[in-house]
Amino acid sequence: MARVPASARSFLPRRRIDLRRAFLSDFPLKAVAVVIALVFWVVISLNQAPAEVSRAYGGRIPVERPEVPAGYVLEGSLGDVSITLRGTDAAITNVVAADLHATLDVSGADLHRTDPQDVPVSATVANPAVRVSDISPATVSVRIEPITSRPVAVQVRFANDPPSGNQPGDPALNPSEVRVSGAASHVARIATVYATVRFGDAATDLVSSVQPVAVDAAGSPIDGLTTDPAIVQVSVPVLPTATTRTVPVVWNIRGAVAAGYQITRITIDPPAVTVRGEPAAIGSVDHVDTGPADVSGLTGDKSFNVGLILPEGTSLFRTTGSTVTVSVAPLVGTRPFPLLAVQAINLASGQVGETDPPTVSVVLAGPVPALSSLTVAQVQAVVDATGHQPGSVSTVDVSVRVPAGITVQSVQPTRVTLTIRTR
Predict the structure, then answer these.
(1) What's the pLDDT tens digit per position in 69-99?
(2) pTM to 2 decimals?
(3) Which overall architecture, per CATH, does domain 146-236 show?
C-alpha cells in the first residue's frame, strides 16, 4: 500500500466509534447469552467434587475383641488406637466416636502358636464418604490359645467368723466339684476353687448360693475362666462354742510284729479332733481312741485306715477319718562263730597252706532276722598267701568275709602263722 504523506493526513476523514450503540445493539440477545453463561458456571461449580483432606481423629478408638475360631480364646490387652481419616473436610468434621470401630483381623493368625503374636488392626467408618487411611499402632500383640477344661474340687472359705460364742460346723457343698474352662495357660495355673461365704450377725445356720472362683498357688483369682455349674450351694451349721471340746487321738495297736523285728514309731493323722455334745457328755472326755490296728507279723512300715471310737452322747465336730502309721524295723543283735576255720587263698599251683591256730573266733553284728538265717558257709575267714614260697613261715592278717548288711564286730586272733608246703 502507498504511504500517505504526513502533510496530507489531516485532510483524511476520521472514523467515529459509537460505544453506546455498540452496547445497546442486540441487547436482548446479549443479555440471554450472559444469563446462559452464568447458569453454566453455577452448574459446573455445584457438580465439581470437593477436595479431599487427611486428618487425624481427635480421640483414641478402643480395639474391640474379635470373634475367634470355635475352641479358641484370645488373651491379651487390646488397648486403643489412633486413626487418620480421608475425605472432604465437611464429611470428616461430622464423624463422631460412635461412627468408628476398630478390631483385630485374626484371619491370618497362627492357631498353633502359644506365644504372643502380632495381629493387624482394622478400622471402619460408618460414613461411606470417609475412609480410614492410617492406624497407629497397626498391630496388637496377643495370644490365641485353645480352650481346655478340667474338674476341680470346691473348697469352702470363710470370709469372717460367726457371731461371738459360735463356730462353724462342717460345710456341705452341692455340687462338691465343678468343671473349669478357659485358656489352656490359665487352666494350668489353677490350684483350687474357692466358694467364699460370709456369716451374718445372727447365730443361724448359713445357706448361700455362691459363685466359685478359681485361684492360683498364691491364692489370687484367675481371670477369664468359667465354671460349670456357675453357682454352688453352700450350707454351714453355726454351733455354740460351749458344746465342743478338742482332745487328742490315742492309737490302739493289737498283735505282735514278726520275730526279730520291732516297732520304732507310731503316728496318727489327725493327732487331735473336736467332739461336740451336751456338757455332761463331753465333760469327762479327755481323748478319743482309734479302732484297732493289727500289726501281727509285720516286717515293714504300714498305714491303717481306722475309725474313731466316740464316747456315748458325743459326735465329731468335723467329720474325719483316722490313719495310724506303724514303722517297723529289724532288731539289731550279734551272733558268735567260735570255731571258724581259716582258709589260705591265692596259693600257687601244687601248694597248700596251714595256719596256726587253724580256727578263729568271730562275732558278727546286724539285723536279727539276717543273723538268724546266716549259715557257716556264708562266713569265711581267709589269709592271703600271695608271694609266699614253699617252706616259708610268716605271720599274716585274718580277713573275714560276710554277706551285705552284716558287720564283723570282733575277730580273735586277728593274726595267725601261715606255713606254705608242697603237695
Answers:
(1) 888 988 888 999 999 999 998 888 889 999 9
(2) 0.47
(3) Beta Complex (2.170)
